Amino acid sequence: MIVVDSNIVAYLYLPGDYTAQAEALLQRDPDWMAPLLWRSEFRNILAGYMRRREITFDVARNLQLEAESLLAGAEYEVDSRLVLELVRDSNCSAYDFEFIALALTFGIKLVTMDAKLLKAFPKHAVALSDG
Question: How many Cα atoms within 13 Å fall on the side-chain side of residue 29?
């Protein structure tokens, strides 16, 4: 079981440089979890693709449904106090800390490509290439 951030989900569903690595990660560890925030962040990623006319509305909607299906039953609210404590002690965003807070709560790794999180939490965050 691992926590994945929204970009890892995007790499899985939107073909690009990291898609093969995201697919391999899913094969190795199909038990992904994320804070509820992932939905909004993923929708925002899809919105960017739609605005650049790289995908249609229908494709975006289908990708959102597929991703929600993947994470069904594995989406969690996070402890606000923990997120704020993490914010107090670092310069990462509160959004980013929702993912690390979930990983800390469950005692599992966060897979991310966020350089700040990888540097700030080397024991709890791993890069997609290392996941």
Answer: 16
| Residues 71-97: tens digit of each pLDDT | 999 999 999 999 999 999 888 899 999
pTM recorded for the entire structure: 0.94
Q: Widest CA span of the chain, in angstroms?
A: 42
Q: Are 8 and 128 in contact (CB under 8 A)?
A: yes
Contact (CB, 8 A) for 113 and 131: no
| DSSP H or E run through 22 | helix 19-28
| Residues in the chain, total | 131
Q: How many helices (H) and strands (E) does the chain have?
A: 7, 5
Q: What is the 3-state secondary structure (H, E, C) of 116-129?
A: HHHHHCCCCEEECC
- Residue 4 — left, alpha, or beta (φ > 0 → left; ψ -120 to 50 → alpha)? beta
Residue partners of 117: CB distance under 8 A and separation at least 6: 5, 92, 96, 99, 100, 110, 125
